[in-house]
Amino acid sequence: MIMRDRELVSALRSGDVSAARACGLLFDAHGARLYRRCRSMLGDHGAAVTALRDTFVVARAHIDQLGDPRRLAEWLSAIADTECERLRAAVEAADTPRWEEDQTVFPVASLRVRVLTGATAPELAAYHARVARRADRFDRAGFPLPPRCQRPVPPSSYLLPGLIIVACALALTALVVIEMAGLSSQPLTAWMTRPPHTAG
């Protein structure tokens, strides 16, 4: 029996269902529709399965983000669109050939097994965690932001350490130049090693 969306959201949020059961409920209610959506966007069965698998991983990990349970179908579609866009961008960035249009029809039962196996296999736990972590930006209604709208890494996080090193190197170079040019009243090494003055 297929659950209604509000019941499905409640079951997923309860934490009482296993990963396999949760993804199975999602697939039974929305899997076929989402697969057709992914395939229409990507034009390839294998790519559509990958996007659908990741859609369920993200949905299960971030179900608490959904503000209105009645919008579950819309929310899942938004996640699927985001995952398709992410997958398509990865293919383009890798400069690999685009998928060719494939009109082959696959049985829903075999599709269900393949998607759920990929979305719940324990040996893929690290991959599932990475998929859930990369899709952690949502709008106020709980809908995922497209990859191009997600927050970039602040430049300061990787520029500041390098700038500090450069500044230290420049300061040291300036001191050496001053000593070599004779602009210092005494050798730099003597100044650096002079014992502190003590009162007699």
Automatic annotation (TrEMBL):
Single GO molecular function: DNA-binding transcription factor activity
Alphabetic keyword roster: Membrane, Transmembrane, Transmembrane helix
Keyword Transmembrane: yes
GO biological processes: DNA-templated transcription initiation
Keyword Coiled coil belongs to the record: no
Residue ranges crossing the lipid bilayer per the database entry: 158-178
InterPro entries in UniProt: RNA_pol_sigma_r2
Coiled-coil segments: none
Source taxon at top rank: Bacteria
Name used for this protein in its record: DNA-directed RNA polymerase specialized sigma subunit, sigma24 family
Organism of this sequence: Marinactinospora thermotolerans DSM 45154
